[in-house]
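User: Run a structure prediction on this.
Assistant: Running it now.
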Amino acid sequence: MHAMQYELTLPADYDTAIIRARVSRIGHLLDDWEGLALKAYLLRERGVHGSPVNQYAPFYLWNTVEGMNTFLWGGAFQGLSDDFGRPAVQQWTGLAYAEGGAVGSPARVAVRRRERVPDGVTLSEVMADAVEETGRLAREDGAVLAAAAVDSRAWELVHFSLWEHESPMADGDVFQVLHLSAPGLGRLPQGRQW
């Protein structure tokens, strides 16, 4: 599993209806993308769920690097780059994935929490804790799914979860889910990824 996200931080007075219309128009294009487990089309609006910014920030879980690379280099990502400028694309190596009790339910919100892996820690213990946190989140009421991944260049963990209700049982940045493309979610291995 590979995780990926880019963020487009928009002006404070930006009409987020433009993003909603864009997702409504093109969101279905990845509903059958080869190698994609999940793309969550995510939006934060200034003042909603405590967000200080307007931000469009899709989050991806990939089953294959080939699918991810085809998306990035094969033309699909070019449209976003042409419209908004080319954003930095964050990538994390998968640590764990777990389905929640609400799997199959429509996801209304997503939560993303990033945290630095401190210097001087035992990496196997930190990664085992991230796996345990994934399972804990998935067991919470209303959880659709949870995942954890690590960027070993910046030594950053990311915890990602989807929720069927507006009050997630997780800490972090809260996003509205505008659309989900999940062609390969059923093929994503559950549990620890090593």
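Residues 2-192 form a domain with the Alpha-Beta Plaits fold (CATH 3.30.70.100).
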